[in-house]
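Sequence only, no structure available. Ideas?
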Amino acid sequence: MSQHGVGPRAVTRSVAFLTAGVLAVPALTGCGSEDPAGKPLAAPDIQPAGRDRIADGSTLRWAVDSVPDTLNTFQSDADTTTLRVAQAALPSMFRMNADGRPERNPAYLESAEVVETEPKQVVLYKLNQQAVWSDGREIGAADFAAQWRALSGKNTAYWTARNAGYDRIQKIERGDNALEVRVTFSRPYADWRSLFSPLYPKDVMGTPDSFNDGARKKLKVTAGPFTVKKVDREDDEITLARNPRWWGRPAKLSEIVLRTVPRDKRTAELAAGTLDVAEIDPAAARRITVAARPQSSSSPLTGPGAGARKKLRKASVRYAGQQQALRGFEVRKSLEPAFTQLALNGAEGPLADERVRRAVARALDRKELAKAVLKPLGLPAVPVGSHLALSGQAHYADSSGALGDQDTKEAQALLADAGWVRGGPLKEQKKKQKEEKKAAGAEGEKTSGEDNKAHGGQDPADHLAHDGRPYQHPARGGAPGAYAPEGTAAPANRETAPLAKDGKPLTLRFVLPSGPGSQTLRTVADRISRMLERVGIGTDISRVSDESYFKDHIASGQYDLALYSWPATAFPATDARPVYAKPVPAADGSLNVEQNYTRVGTDQVDQLFDEAVSTLDEGKSRSLIRKADSRIWAAAGSIPLFQRPELIAARKNLVNAGAFGFGTPVYEDMGFLKKGAKPASGPSAKGSSAR
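Reply:
I predicted one. Tokens follow.
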């Protein structure tokens, strides 16, 4: 799983919405008009170079978040490193281009197309005649059939994370020759290009035992430019080596070492020369950028006497040395194929009322939030306009108009319509006031502000923030003190008082991760809290450990508001459906939410997804996806905010690697420039690898 989000599409897409007559859904762009998908907001930044300029035989040391528990991308505990290994070592019939759209992978496919639609959909794959597994066996129909049977969902002995698409296949057979594979579907399947990427050998997929255990710790048989040479769990690294049976352009690197390095340790490792490329946070990116500037100050210590103390002197020398070493690196940046959203739990509490959810959404200035995160990084600060795709992808269209832009008055009107009023009496307040009157004596003497506790009668010490400082209630400006006794005239600042209903204040529990890599989320949360405060909505921010954030809070529904990310895939009809599907009661009485952690959904949206995935008319399928997105916006179960930044520290002489954006990495083209060769410059320095 990616940080506070979910893993890639191959792992799982694991982080009516419209009430009739309330909101109108805007008309979709008609045929013949400009394509609403637009262009990607940011290009890949990988320092492209031709293969003739790349040295042969180097080792690339690449930081990853973990050595995964499994190398099988179709198991629930697979992660982004699992996918990275699969991309380098296994066949993939289709891969993503720089626009986030699937394209045929010529290393494995001569062609793939729908050859029949009646009475059944049939896709004919024509394989590259040179494509072989590392044991010498040809890739063929037997491998396709074994993967289908394993992932079809018919045999529960296979511990699969997902079956989408494979459950629609009726049969797989050899075509006119060994290089042809015919796949017949029992029901039409629009996203057929999502299948068999990656493709595992029949040795892995052939039996439940081999599927469940055989590919967890190692991959004996592969078919990519690299093989899995070693998985070292003691040293927390995976070594990939050149595949001697690879039939394509030989890999320029002899080895790729994927090594576990915590995010907060990566800057030091880069400076020490033990890493060549690593995903980094904005703070590390600033350090590397500063190090590259001519005549920049290397020392973080300022002020008189800073060098007088030995400890500070050592720190200064160490920092200066690291800055000098970091001059050999640069920051490559793009936008990930993923977006950060504000999730609103609609299962219970105030947010079960769609008017309150829409009020939260209308209180947000999404442009300001995107600007706060992306502008300092030099990336396009454009809010995401879709739940189901990103700008440049085929299914993208900005459907946020179904909900509307920031509008304080409209947000307040929605809250008033839902029965929330400013300065209303609070039950806990009244009880506390009576206790205070009694304690003060018959004369009704007032207790001191020090003794009169805030937060509805609770001691502020019970609400210490995780940094140990006193809890500051956003809706009250953190000011201690009691409300005026009953019968006292309303204070002059009543318009800033929290909203209340049935004696309870409108305060939402905002759950956030507390780890070192979550500072951006916490900054965004603070801004959101201030925006909500302006319309009378209070927030109670609760920071929890990264380990428990998703499992114990998001997935279990223990939150009102939360920030996490979803990937945007090229196949939203398949991958996004479980994220927005209507929760249904399970046989044991629990609620089956699939991956819809906001618990908001309707039959209408489900129907639109079902229609989109079942039509082979690509234009019609895109139209249905965009219509579904409009209705998802209207319900305000989740509010897309901004595309996630992708910041990569890379050695300056490393080429065809870095911030890949939408594109699938081309591992055989990665490498280091030959001595004397210079990197590309100007606009050509961004883009996909030279082919």
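Confidence is low (pLDDT under 50) at residues 1-32, 440-493, 682-691.
Hope that gets you unstuck.
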